[in-house]
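If your schedule permits, I should be very grateful for your opinion on a structural question. I have a record of one protein: its chain in single-letter code and its fold written as discrete structure tokens. Would you kindly read the sequence against the tokens and tell me how you understand this chain to fold? Thank you for your consideration; the sequence and its tokens are set out here.


***
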Amino acid sequence: MRVCVVALGKIGLPLAVQFASKGHEVIGADVNKRVVDAVNDGAEPFPGEHLLAERLKDAVTARRLRATTDTAAAVRESEAVVVVVPLFVDAEGVPDFGWMDDATESIAAGLRPGTVVSYETTLPVGATRERWAPMLEQGSGLTVGEDFHLVFSPERVLTGRVFADLRRYPKLVGGVDRASAEAGVRFYSAVLDFDDRDDLDRPNGVWDLGSAEAAELAKLAETTYRDVNIGLANQFARFADAKGIDVMKVIEACNTQPYSHIHRPGIAVGGHCIPIYPQMYLWNDPEASIVRTAREANAEMPAYAVDVLAAAYGDLDGANVLVLGAAYRGGVKETAFSGVFGLVDSLRAKGANPYVADPMYTAAELQAEGFRPHRGETVTAAIVQADHDEYRSLGPADLPDVRVLLDGRRVTRPEAWAGRRHIVIGA
């Protein structure tokens, strides 16, 4: 097949490389010329994705992958189109379809009969059928279900381990009609490989969920579940703080029973997925009070963490406090909805002078994010925000003037901080 992948970001580019590895000819379309040029040179445009650099180079060298800024032309050449364009929500949780609309119009301009179009970007329930189908029909003059096929098939991978996750998890597909679903199943069966999994009730592979709406809800549900679960864990942690109980001992004990799967509490919930998709679900289902409460509880955790620090340290007014980790999670160079923003704001609100350090970022990059980078200034308190491996061996020798360390991710060794105040959330 000839496949077009629209948007060569941290999910789209590994997908394009995966499709090419199965022997298909892949055209990547992206509005960013720098990204397009890097891909055509066989160079990864962003760091951190395991195996991407070598697999990308192999695909380009073998002439199975090329990139362009002309989406319509790439679609015109292709039998299948996979869309991984970002979709955001605003502060009120309202989706911003701008980039997706633009991409869909470009796809429609190049769409030809027989093509299968798959949206992988997480969407509100109903968007594939009610928004994209009419736009594609209007822009192409073709009829969905007769002239072309349309499915929703959510990406279910984490950056940094995309290739492994593509093999590990079933590929969910939902069509706007039966013919579209069958076309979607055939397409993904031809471009993906799957690990054997004895823990599944049916063989791992491409799973038809029966409708685009079911596939849309599946992605929102699995991510919203995580947010609600973490929100519950954070509530337990806050109660444990008040009672002097180590919540992790409690959670570990609970999870030895097969019906309990309590997640880990923490200083923040960040990234492109967990803070966003519950809000997208709420846009569909505004009466979902459990989802709303959990989202609010998780959003409050950075401010709560600063309160915990202040209770241990004392008045933070004028104190130099170091936030360790700008990234939203360890090993990933990405600040999307990272807890660092809430921590810095809350520290400033208490009169502290917050500094930020992260082994993945230069001082200039941190400054560009709006932070004051730490350049060796004396700090008397510190907060571990990201679970980078580099912080596992952190000790007083690294921060000799720190009196109180709040480890928001439980990655440091308490015994290493003997003689200093070492605190965690939920203890």
User: Anything to note?
Assistant: The two ends are 56 Å apart (CA to CA).
